Amino acid sequence: MAFQVSPGVQVNEIDATNVVPAVSTSIGGFAGSFNWGPVGEVLTVSSENELAEKFGSPDNNTAKYFLVAASFLKYGNALKVVRVASGHDNATADGSGQLIKNNDDYVNNYADGSLSKGNWVAKYPGELGNSLKVSMVTEGITSFSGWTYAANFDAAPGTSQYAIDQGKTAAKDEVHVAVVDEDGAISGTPGTVLETFAFVSQGSDAKNSDGTTNFYKDVINSTSEYIWWADHDTSLTDAGETIASNTTFTVNTAAIEHSLSGGSDDNAPTVGEIATGYDLLEDADTVDVNLLFATPDANGAETIAEDLISIVNARKDCMAFISPPIEDSVGTSTPATDVKAFADGLTSTSYASCDSTALYVYDKYNDVYRWIGAAGHHAGLCANTDSVADAWFSPAGVNRGQLLGVTKLAYNPKKADRDTLYKSRVNPIVSLPGQGTILFGDKTLLSRPSAFDRINVRRLFIALEKAVSTAAKAQLFEFNDEFTRAQFRNLVEPFLRDVKGRRGLTDFSVICDNTNNTSQVIDGNKFVADIYIKPNRSINFITLNFVATRSGVEFSEISGS
């Protein structure tokens, strides 16, 4: 700023338009075995219905994964899911089976027609693909109305408008394709038409009026939810040629039909496969996730728990929620002792939290009750807390710790058991008469006394660090001078005052000046801001003193006030 010697008006511009952005704190992350959907790919679902649509309804083998994922969605509406299934096969037209994990796998390895598994392949691995049938007709069909699926199309196939526009008025290039749930395993009703592709073309150069491709292979590969193209049918000898070079395409007098088979399920994913699934959620730069959880009865519950702890310790912007193995609370006479032993073996960290017991829940898809871990509920309570309050409020107790859809607990810990569990960093889940099933603790897995041994404090700092670090990117490549430092303080301090006003902290201080941005720091192309936070603490212990007094005594005489 220039120094003025004589009276005058000086105009300065300060950019105060930058603000600390709102950041997500309630996105869940889960990896497990499912009956359908892409393998090794991160998909986002917003509801249990969408979970079932994308990954299939559970059977007895996958229910333990599906129900844990679904339990989170009772509270939150954003869950990133990874399906693991390296031992699965996709159903194929020739019945031999073939693992095609996802779109990238297909495009990179099989889209060129080199698969040699027949004409069609189920889009995803699993036995569900064995219910698929593909039925095709061309213009030459003897009786279009006699085709089983004719009612799903407006008219018989013929010559496309594109071919007519190219002067090929008798090209007869059009094909109708119906994808059918032959056995009813997908839809629940045998013979259900799942999707149709009308008036698509055998010609590789065929276009719609808007310029998009109408080549049947490309249309189906890009839009079908159930099948991949594998090869042209041998009876369609001209399929894949250009309309420009072909006067008349092959026609068939009867429908061309292929029932897929050879699809298989891998009902017991290994620890390594589960860990590989969670590894896809590890990179904080590419995957926004805040609440990781796992089913506890996968092979090697301790190993999976440690893998989650490793991920959150590396990311430092999310928490892991861990449940003890089902057998530690179901079918044992010493559940508190067994759960304590499990928790005592876990790595100390403030980025993870452990619950106490298995939950008995209803599986509506198979009309049975099942034991599942509570980790999905535990993470879901945090998501719900973000919705009804803020991340820095405790997700426990009667106000924000109510578990939904729980029939019963494997065991309901009494006071002595709760004391044992809490000392071992385990948050008890209790059933209180007239109040429901409640998470009755908010500890992290940090073993030493610290402000970070509480979930609300850890999540407060995650929210603050994520928001402020995102905002701080605006200072990159600017000059480390007083103007930039003042701009940063003006950015962060209003944000922290807002958090303070919303009860997240009791006080704060932002130091960003020449005391911590020395010449050595500046010469190193660095920028330093020290942000001091006094977090608000949740109440874990309440003492109520009731004092009986004589009728002639003033209360002030007893209390001293």
Question: In a few lines, what is going on in this structure?
Answer:
This protein is of the alpha/beta class and 561 residues long.
Can you lay out the helices and strands and say which pair or pack?
Layout: E1 28-32, E2 42-45, H1 48-55, H2 63-72, E3 79-83, H3 103-109, E4 120-122, E5 132-138, H4 161-165, E6 174-181, E7 192-201, H5 216-223, E8 227-229, E9 256-259, H6 271-279, E10 291-293, H7 301-315, E11 319-322, H8 335-344, E12 352-355, E13 359-363, E14 368-372, H9 375-388, H10 397-400, E15 408-409, H11 415-423, E16 426-427, E17 429-432, E18 436-439, H12 455-472, H13 482-501, E19 505-511, H14 519-523, E20 530-535, H15 555-559
Parallel strand pairs: 1-3, 1-10, 10-11, 11-12, 12-16
Antiparallel strand pairs: 2-3, 4-8, 5-6, 5-9, 6-7, 13-14, 13-15, 17-18, 19-20
Helix pairs in contact: 2-9, 6-7, 8-11, 12-13
Account of the protein in words:
The structure is a single chain. By secondary structure, the protein is of the alpha/beta class. It folds into two domains: 28-86 and 267-455, 3-Layer(aba) Sandwich (Rossmann fold), CATH 3.40.50; 103-259, no CATH class. It starts with 27 loop residues before the first strand and ends with a helix. Helix 7 links the parallel strand 10 and strand 11. Helix 6 runs parallel beside helix 7 (301-315) and helix 12 (455-472) runs antiparallel to helix 13 (482-501). The longest helix has 20 residues, at 482-501. The protein has 15 helices and 20 strands.
